[in-house]
Specification:
The chain has about 250 residues and is of the alpha/beta class. It is built from seven helices and seven strands. Helix 6 packs antiparallel against helix 7. The radius of gyration is 18 Å and the shape is globular. About 40% of the residues are buried.
């Protein structure tokens, strides 16, 4: 199984780290993707753009490396995303490269516009990735080169000829961070075996940004979800589907 987590800024991924760690530990392929470099984070004060983006890239690389995931940064502009076709097309070409079976992203109603726009293009990219002439550029649309899967190093794009890409037409399960107003069914994942990794990632960001939100509060939040689901720790999502899959028997 291949899972891609698509978020706007490094640290957005905290809400699904237990789930991603579980899958990576099982041997599934996991990729963390950020649509921006998070360059406007207020905690950096007067630090230069180059310094901020360097640190943010290092943070993303550390988190991905901690769970054995691939990672990729786009540069769609922190707090400047619009959710347009060009943004979705960049992500669609990454889908065509990585070929995910599941995507995890933000909810549709988060107050931050980058979060909402990231969720929008993550969903739009599913359809764009299915159309060969869009993915390869044969339809006449000018677009950036195909993203590289080697990580978020010095080059954001690889320059690879997109004509070599193949459309990704397999079904993609689309998971979003839980939102009470969502019309879609809830899914809770048991992260009891990966809570330590998830808490380590949360503490990594906590220590850097000096958040008021503590590691103890993080664990308690996962424990509350676990009590809802009958496990020790859990994470919660909405699955963008009308109904959950049928099960052979009732629990």
């Amino acid at each position: 199984m291949r899972i891609m987590a698509v978020f706007a800024h490094p640290d957005d991924e905290i809400g699904c780290m237990g789930t991603l760690a579980q899958h990576a530990a099982r041997g599934d392929e996991v990729m963390l993707v950020w649509t921006t470099l998070g360059e406007l984070a207020s905690q950096f004060g007067d630090a230069s753009h180059e310094e901020v983006t360097r640190i943010r890239r290092e943070h993303g690389a550390w988190v991905a490396g901690r769970i054995g995931a691939q990672h990729h940064f786009f540069d769609m502009g922190d707090s400047r995303m619009t959710g347009n076709r060009a943004e979705a097309l960049q992500l669609a070409r990454l889908y065509a490269r990585f070929r995910p079976n599941a995507v995890i992203t933000w909810s549709d109603d988060h107050p931050h516009p980058d979060h909402r726009m990231t969720a929008k293009i993550a969903f739009d990219a599913i359809t764009l990735a299915r159309i060969p002439k869009i993915v390869t550029g044969a339809g006449g649309a000018s677009s950036p080169p195909a993203p590289h899967l080697g990580g978020g190093g010095g080059s954001i794009e690889s320059g690879e000829d997109v004509s070599r890409l193949q459309a990704w037409r397999d079904p993609i399960r689309f998971y979003q961070y839980y939102a009470p107003a969502s019309p879609y069914p809830e899914v809770l994942t048991d992260v009891s075996d990966s809570i330590e990794v998830a808490a380590e990632v949360m503490s990594f960001y906590h220590d850097f940004y000096k958040w008021a939100w503590t590691a103890e509060q993080f664990r308690e939040g996962r424990a509350q979800l676990g009590r809802m689901a009958g496990v020790k720790y859990a994470e919660r999502f909405n699955l963008r589907a009308s109904h959950l899959r049928a099960r052979p028997y009732l629990d």
